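Subject: Interface between my chains keeps coming out wrong

I've been trying for a while to get a sensible model of this assembly. When I model each chain on its own everything looks fine, but I need the whole thing in one frame so I can look at the contacts. Pasting all components below, labels as-is. Any help appreciated, I'm running out of ideas.
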Amino acid sequence: MKKLDFPQGALEMLILRVLAGQPNHGFGISQQIHLLSKEVLSVEEGSMYPALHRMQERGWIVSEWGKTENNRRAKYYELTEVGKQRLGEEHASWEALTTAIGDVMAGLQS
Amino acid sequence: MSGIFSQLRVMFNALLRRNKSEDALAEEMQFHIDQQTEEHIAKGMPPEKARKEALKAFGGIEQHKEDCRDSWGTRLISEFLQDIRYGWRQVLKHKGFSLIVILTFAICLGLNTAIFNVYNSMVWNPNRFANEDRIISIWEEFDDLWGEDRFQSSRILWKERSEQSETLEAIGLFGGTWENITHGNSEKNAEFLGVGRMTPSMFEILKVAPLLGRTFSAEDVENEGNRPVLLGYEYWQNRYQGDENVIGSSLYINNQLHEVIGVMPEGFAFPLARVSNMPDQVYTPFPRWEWSWRPEFRNRPMGFCMGLMKTGVNIEQVEDELRRINVSNGLNYPEQFKIAQEQNHRTELCSLGDHIIRFLQTELQLLQMAVVFLLLLGCVNISSLIISHNHRRMGEFRYRYALGAGRFRLVRQLLTESVLVSIISAAIALCLSWLVLRSLEFGGIFDDMVIRPRVSLDRETWLFASCLALFLGTLVGFISLLPILGKAQDSSLADGLREDHRTASAGKSFKIFQGALIATQLCLAAVLLIGSGLLINSFTKILDIDTGFDSSNVFTAGFRPVGTADERREATEKFLEQAKQIAGVQDVAISNWPPLKLGNLYLRSLRIEGSEHGDEVMCHNDTVSAGYFATLGIRFLRGRTFSESEIQNRSPVVVIDKNLADLHFRGEDPVGKRISIPAEGGGIATEEGERNWLTIIGVTETIRNVNLLESPVLGTAFTHIHRQLPYWNGVMVRTTIRENNIYSELESMLASVTQKTGLAMPAMMHDLVDKHRAPSKALLIMCLIITFVSLLLSAVGIFGNVAYTVVLQTRELGIRMALGGSRLHVLILGIRFWFMMVLVGILCGSALSLGIAPYMESHLYNTSPRDLITYATAIIFLAVVSSLACYVSAYRIIRVNPMVALRAE
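Reply #2:
Try treating it as a single job with all components included. I did that and got this:
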């Protein structure tokens, strides 16, 4: 199946969504996005890190070094209260946007 | 809130634990790549390929890292730190260049800081008295009244004002005279001291607390029986060795018992007292002096009037009110008011600070102007130095540009460099200014000045130096960037940087810019050299002022003869007789007012026999012995001194000075004419004694007896001591003996003449003169320093700049020579443009100097602001230096092989 690039800004929302489940490291997050999108969405993996650092700077997430199952050191990110709120807002506006776009497209088809 | 907090924490971590943050970032990304690789291997991919795939999927690691750093928000700061480190390395790399730039900057800044320190501590922020910003000085002005412009106020005017003014919190009067001071019943060591008299309100105005005891109260004036006296600090130290039990002891002022009630603190002086030559060694309240309240004394001077304005009141309001008070009270004194109106009486006022500094301000302003010009010259020098230095670094900039440094980044880095240099210079400048002022202070240059600058590196000085350095650093940075930015406008920076490779000579716009810089440099140097030359001329003339008398080898002291008139006369005559016998004594004389020793002479009213208007005019009067003129080497223009027979017969004769002759005998020969001055009475504010007609027997040169800088306004009449014995015998001895020896010789001799008195106030006459010259000497030394630095700066700057610009044409000149141009021709071609610029600069500078000449005129003593020699010297110096610079650098180019010149980089 063809892999899709996704719109700018949506990356942050996806990261927030993934972290809403449980704390995770960068690699884990990219894996999750890949899996949850049924292997449709692909991120240039490196570009997730600037996004993570930016979000941490804004206070949406916090980070802490921890151990993986294989006992390797990794940096885990966790959602803050602010981040949770942000996820809600982003989600709502995304819904509104896609509904609106969907309506327009449906109107064109009919 | 938490957002800001976490942002700050990230920034903080990134900045302070820079290495740690970098390591963490690398580890985080490495973990990602490793995990991905392992996953690929687990799926059966060979390890090498797995790793490649992982790296490919991750994207450019360095780019992602840079993006992460961006999000830390520390990029500007870290780049700034990087610029500073880079700048510092540049400073260390080009040591010679950096040293010249930093020294130039530091010297210019240092001199400016020094003058700022002097100015700040003397004019802007003197902190002499609490409330100084509210204290005002008030004086009267009359047209043609006794030739003085600023006039003290009378007691009546003071009383009217203190009773009626609503804008002033307190108003005081301060005056003084010279009086005899004795201690106990003994006349031993009788002194002739300055006694300041004041209203008790003066202390309310100045808010000065005494060091010991108390100040005056209103009762002190009313109670005639109890006369209090306050001691000045210096007098307390010298006469009482700082004895704290002095309170309650007594001293006699003109034989009247006074009780010491307090001691004033160190450094205290009544404002205006010292600048006006007013005495202030001990202080008493004004006595009751019933006569001073009589109507005819309403226009007579009594003392300086000073007021403390209420908060929120401005000086114009006070001025209006005082004028109103003057007019409304004038009706009570119709006659005096009429006279005052005819003389166009005006009450004037200004802030106390303005009044005190009046005597020095103009000179200080000129010095300030000089250092500002020096600073400008320094900036131009530094800018041109940096420009030529940057030109040599073009290759470096080109590589950095090629490697991706933006134009903005390059500009920012060069600016950082110049600001860094200016900050280093500011630190040196502060030390330098402190060193200069301290060494001037240590050298005793300020000692004799009536008001002294406070030498300290205070907060204002720090602030001044750092702000000025930052501003100038940025300014110089921008100026030196102009050629580079100018190129950037023509085409891309890279092209601009390559320009010197595409063309044989320097770019045209660059040439014009550089030419303008040379012209500016010479213009500033010309103004500076001409201006400081004029100032040096003027100060030198002040130091060379002819006092009208010969002060070398003249010893002065004084004693007070006591007893009956005959006893006093006898003691005085014996003293004169025996002093002449001392080996090594050439001449000896007695005068009430040895020149420049005490201050204002007695003012007397003078009448001239047969004068058409029969009016009284004012003159100074001194009582002298016959040898006075010979001892001081005062020349006679007409006639002679008192003869033996005139002294024996007590003939009514008088000697006058040229000033008096010029003022009142216009063109006529005064010798043989008769004048009359009252024999008794002190200053002009006392009652007059009996009049006798005195025949003029001689006219002498006018001497500077009160003020060194100004020729006396009034004439002086010298009467002989037999007519009226002085209150105090000022002794003057022309001698070859050293000061200490002559003092002990004279003292033991005096003891043999009379047991009742002793010799006081010894000094050498030339020291007294030097004291009057001290401020000009201090200013002259500062001026010489400035001139020396400006000579150095202009020589170094012009040489550096001209030589550099000529060298820029190396390749062009090389081509011309290779094509067969004659050496002379090429030489002329090489320097023609620059020489034109030099001439334009010098001409502009001279024109500018002529332009500010009218402003200079009032500040110069006996020196024309258009003095040809000063102009010529400055212009010739600059022309020679720049021609030499042009010639030497062009000659060096044409001397080399054309092919070598062509390859010049």
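Reply #3:
Confirming on my end. The beta strands of chain A are 24-25, 61-67, 73-79.
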